[in-house]
Here is the input.
Amino acid sequence: MGKYKKLALSIVLDLIGLITIFDIIWAPLSGYIMTQLYPGKKGKIAGIMSFVEEILPGLDIIPTFTIMWFYTYVFSKSEQPVIEISK
Here is the structure.
């Protein structure tokens, strides 16, 4: 999945999280989705944070998925290796 499609999906998932009626169902589901979108240790940590943010009253306004996208694609210091081809 491209990073901008992942951003759009993150925004939609954050909007779904604003519907407080479904928190008991949405909280574990959002945690699972977060771990699938962002694999590895950072995805697991973000999944836990997403679960807690959704299950606690009043925290639904925090855009956890979008914040994770920005952390991953904008603020992360991990550089992708550059492969140079010489002739």
Notes: The first helix runs from residue 3 to 17. DSSP finds four helices and no strands in the chain.
